[in-house]
Design goal:
Distance between the termini of chain A: 17 Å
Helix content of chain B: 40-55%
Largest sheet of chain A: 8 strands, mixed
Number of helices of chain B: 9
Number of strands of chain A: 10
Radius of gyration of chain B: 16 Å
Strand order of the largest sheet of chain A: 6-3-7-2-8-1-10-9
Oligomer: heterodimer
Strand content of chain B: under 5%
Structural class of chain A: alpha/beta
Chain lengths: 284, 138
């Protein structure tokens, strides 16, 4: 049967992708950001995941105001990096896993999570920047990816509690897939940042670190935090952090298993307008 | 159930909800059109003529031509959509975000390097933080 071996959490800042693509990773400003992923690149080489279930949000790239799905699972075979107005990022296409993705959709929809199913979509920096951080420069991504998009652009966005419960349903679905494959679940976005208005530039280091602590030790309690707290404390775009609870809900301890091991934790301010947070949790 | 009114009590912040989305629908969809190179060229060649092809209000068109991001936000724009105008102008996200704060580009960049804007005094309208400046404009 398929196994979830680990969950990975990471910011997905577009400027980080641009810095990587323009060869700026050794400049002191960016070196501090990329150094947080040195461990992770080595770790991924050892982990050799077969599939990543990657939770991200689209930033007015593939979804405009004409369609705003709250939760969308991508069941297609291949997804191109999007042109977000600066040209496509020079990264490989993302190869999907239509069979596993369709299985997950079928299972969780029957557990009352009403997903939107998407077969054709270009994926934006929300997905490709964490891939770059975790795998570096590659000709082809070393594993398949199931993109999963969450609306965190137009309020109301889903609550942390709903995301956490969805993560638990996704875990059950993955573990009922008959092939023996190694699956990681990633949650991306955040940490504190605000990109708009006179409060732009907001960073809340204490809140971010408490979020990381609670994500590790008390995810269920954390999942009950109302959305207003994310926006007030972590900035209007800090609401992206609800997506991390989907990945956390997919870990074994949320259904009576052992607590995960913290393999890696990193926090740095700033990358452009944003606090960078990164965490790797391994199932025991 | 409408959105908790506490969302409207955060200083220097506009929450993009269904009401803002309706108000800004064509402003945001105009921004999406700038994802295509040929549209960017047409917009740059004659901004007024290009904007007149969209069902936007005069206020929205004026805000776009003035590149007044705070005004565009107040008129229903969402920053992820508005960023397409910045991309057309060759601006980075940091330049765009900074332009909404009343700070110089350099002062904003320095603030970020020094840890960003503090949350203290900036949680609720009526406190005394540095983001309270334009509450009267909201």
């Amino acid at each position: 049967m398929a196994r979830i071996t680990a969950s990975v959490y990471s910011s997905h800042i577009p400027a980080v992708g641009a810095a990587f693509d323009l060869g700026k990773t050794h400049e002191p400003y960016w070196q501090k950001v990329f150094s947080g992923y040195d461990f992770s690149k080595q770790w991924e080489k050892e982990q050799k995941p077969d599939v990543i279930f990657l939770v991200y949000n689209d930033h007015a790239t593939a979804f405009s105001l004409s369609m705003i799905p709250t939760f969308a699972i991508m069941t297609g075979p291949e997804f191109q990096p999007a042109d977000e107005g600066y040209g496509r990022r020079p990264v490989p296409p993302v190869i999907g896993h239509p069979e596993l993705a369709s299985h997950i959709a079928s299972e969780v929809i029957q557990k009352d999570f009403d997903l939107t199913i998407v077969n054709e979509i270009d994926v934006d920096h929300g997905l490709t920047v964490p891939m770059t951080c975790m795998f570096g420069k590659v000709d082809a991504w070393p594993c398949k990816v199931i993109p999963f998009a969450v609306n965190v652009v137009q309020h109301p966005v889903p609550s942390g509690a709903r995301c956490f419960a969805l993560g638990q349903a996704i875990r059950a679905a993955i573990e009922s897939y008959p092939e023996d494959i190694n699956v990681q679940v990633w949650g991306t976005g955040g940490m504190s940042h605000q990109l708009q208005g006179p409060r732009a530039g907001l960073i809340n280091r204490d809140w971010d670190n408490e979020f990381l602590d609670r994500l590790i030790d008390d995810p269920e309690g954390l999942s009950k935090m109302p959305n207003i707290d994310y926006v007030r404390e972590a900035g209007s775009e800090g609401i992206e952090l609800v997506m991390w609870l989907i990945a956390r809900g997919a870990m074994a301890d949320t259904r009576g298993g052992p607590k995960p091991k913290v393999a890696h934790r990193f926090y740095h301010v700033p990358a452009s307008n944003t606090a960078v947070g990164h965490l790797i949790l391994e199932n025991a | 159930m409408s959105l908790d009114k506490e969302f409207k009590e955060i200083p220097g912040t506009i929450i993009f909800d269904a009401e803002q989305s309706r108000k800004g629908y064509w402003l945001n969809q105009f921004c999406m059109s700038l994802m295509k190179a040929e549209n960017r060229e047409r917009f740059k060649a004659n901004e007024r003529a290009y904007l007149d092809e969209w069902k936007m209000t005069e206020d929205q068109k004026q805000a776009v031509m003035a590149r007044d991001l705070n005004a565009m936000m107040a008129l229903g724009g969402n920053i992820y959509f508005l960023s397409k105008i910045g991309a057309t102008d060759g601006k980075s996200f940091q330049q765009m975000a900074g332009s909404m704060t009343g700070m110089s580009e350099e002062a904003y960049r320095d603030m970020m390097i020094n840890g960003g804007r503090s949350i203290e005094g900036n949680r609720r309208i009526g406190e005394h933080g540095d983001a309270q400046r334009t509450n009267k404009d909201k």
